[in-house]
Each structure stands twice: as structure tokens, then as C-alpha cells.
Amino acid sequence: xxxLVESGGGLVQAGGSLRLSxxxxxxxxxxxxxxxxxxxxxxxxEGVACISSSENRGYYGDSVKGRFTISSDxxxxxxxxxxxxxxxxxxxxxxxxxxxxxxxxxxxxxxxxYWGQGTQVxxxx
Length: 125
Known about the structure:
By secondary structure, the chain is mainly beta. The protein contains no helices and 12 strands. The strands form 3 sheets. The chain has a 6-stranded mixed sheet, with no helix packed on it. Strands 1-3-8-7 form a 4-stranded antiparallel sheet, with no helix packed on it. A two-stranded antiparallel ribbon has the order 10-11. A hairpin with a 6-residue loop joins strand 4 (34-39) and strand 5. The chain starts with a strand and ends with a strand.
């Protein structure tokens, strides 16, 4: 079975940092991009970052560019999201997902519908 397990969320003050992890299993890790998405109460889900499996390069939504960094450890089949200079508007439940596509300014999920359970990130002002 495909599994994605997020961890690392929590409460942090504005300007602080958190590192999220997404441990994966049950599929061929090298065959798929992996994405991070977030959803705040009352808002639509937003693409945060996507790491290309072929390029091992991250792509980001405009709202996090320059502050967040996505990376992967293929030996551990784990994807990370380093979040720096956090802002109250970054408060949301963060999810990782199998597959994503991207442009220079945004990230989207695909029809490959495998998601983690989410981890809460709360940034206080």
C-alpha cells in the first residue's frame, strides 16, 4: 500500500523555522515527483513546493519562494520541506502527495491521488 507520513509541524513564532518530513513507502520513489501542499481553514488547497524526480530540483509557489526549500533523500524515500522566515499566513495543515507538476510560479497536484494525513503548522505573530 502507498503510504505517506508527514511529521515536524508545530507552533512557531513569526520569523522562525520548521522542517517538515514526508516518509514514503509502497511505490517506486524515483518514478514520481513529490509535492507539498497546504490548506488553511476556509481556503482552497495551495501548492507549496514540488521536487522533480528527474532533475532533483525544487519548484515553488510564489508565496513561499525564497523562504522554503524542498529536498529529498532517495535512500530514505523521504522528502523534506525546510521553512524559514515563517509568517502567520503560512499557518495551515501541510500535506505531502505523490506526484505534482509545476511552472515557474506555482505547483499543482495531479490525478495520482495519494496523500499523507497532514501536519499542522501554526505561526504566531
